[in-house]
Amino acid sequence: MLIVGHNEVRALLQGREQDILELVAEAYRLHDEGRSALPHSVFLRFPDQPTDRIIGLPAYLGGAEPVAGMKWIASFPGNLARGIERASAALVLNSTVDGRPEAFIEASLISAKRTAASAALAAGLLTADPEPDGIAMIGLGPINLEVLRFTAARLPSVRTATVYDLDAGRAKDFARRAEAALQGLTVTVADSAAAALRTHSLVALATTAGAPHMDLTACRPDATVLHVSLRDLTVQAVLEAQNVVDDTDHVCRERTSLHLAELETGGREFVDAELGTLLRSGSPFRRLPGRRVVFSPFGLGVLDLALARWVRDRAGAEQLGVRVADFLPGAVG
Q1: I need a labelling partner for 157 at 20 to 30 A (CA). Which of 5, 42, 59, 281 fits?
Q2: Domain of life here (predicted)?
Q3: Closest by alpha carbon to 121, among 158, 150, 161?
């Protein structure tokens, strides 16, 4: 068993945005081709802690190097007040030959970076302006910092960001960290969500909201909205937009904004396309004049596996991590 910790994962993924974008894009293509197995994720909730949850994402991804495993990711928003990250995660990879676990990897960065890469790929395919110069961001935690990093890698024209968070101190800290991380980027803190949304045609939402609280009336008519947090938008906002998702069956559940739209309308006709199909076909997405486009990624376990496999292989090649020879029964020491 190979165990790879957080600091080693961070070192391996540092500066690898283009590699990660391609890994995530290829995982989407394989999934769209039907070369994956992706059961619905399992949500563990606590009766006395309604905001907390732990999610299990089992998956199999085929192709030239098949990989199987499961990510186990916890979201405890109260951690922020404790001075620690909201999310924590671990991922196990299993052999596709005998099923035995082969690697155990700290996965919070893998999860954040695959989410951000997914959003950046969508931004590159869906924006009305082929070279947007900036992005508006609502919800300023680690996810949107990664979304900013990967969007700038996918769309180098993005050199400005206008940001807003309910916590003004967090917003100022985000601006400082973003400008330090991305050379030449200018970040402005807005005094309201509406003020931020008006500034750019590209928008990223990554809040911890558990129920819809936002429409898109403050956005530009040609806006592309990366709805990473999935539960911000009202049903009406969803129905008024063109909607692109990563997987329709996965995103229309667990009371996401799209799930609520399905419950209200009785169907899924409001979903216009899936990202994997767009990536595989190479055909441009057809935007309708005067309609905003919303990308809502549920977050697919195959993306985590694609990055985890890469981390495992790199860790092995660079002799990183800890090997536990007698972890499994019958193992030879």
Answers
A1: 281
A2: Bacteria
A3: 150
Within 10 angstroms of residue 326's Cβ, the number of other Cβ atoms is 10
Is the Cβ–Cβ distance between 202 and 135 less than 8 Å? yes
Among 218, 223, 234, CA closest to 295: 223
Domains identified in the chain, total number: 2
Mean pLDDT of the region 18-29: 98
Answer yes or no: do 265 and 147 share one domain: yes
Alpha helix (H) residue ranges in the chain: 6-13, 17-32, 108-126, 142-154, 168-181, 193-197, 235-240, 248-251, 257-265, 275-281, 301-317
Whether 330 is in a domain gets the answer: no
pLDDT in tens, 37-91: 999 999 999 999 988 999 999 999 999 999 999 999 999 988 888 988 888 999 9
Per-residue pLDDT reduced to its tens digit, 85-120: 888 999 999 999 999 999 999 999 999 999 999 999
Domain containing 279 equals 127-296
Tell whether 178 and 149 lie within a shared domain. yes
285: domain CATH number is 3.40.50.720
CATH of the domain at 72: 3.30.1780.10
Phi first, then psi: give them for residue 269, nearest 5 degrees: -65, -20
List C-alpha distances in Å: 186 to 18, 109, 173, 191, 219: 22, 24, 14, 16, 20
156 and 173 Cβ atoms separated by less than 8 Å: no
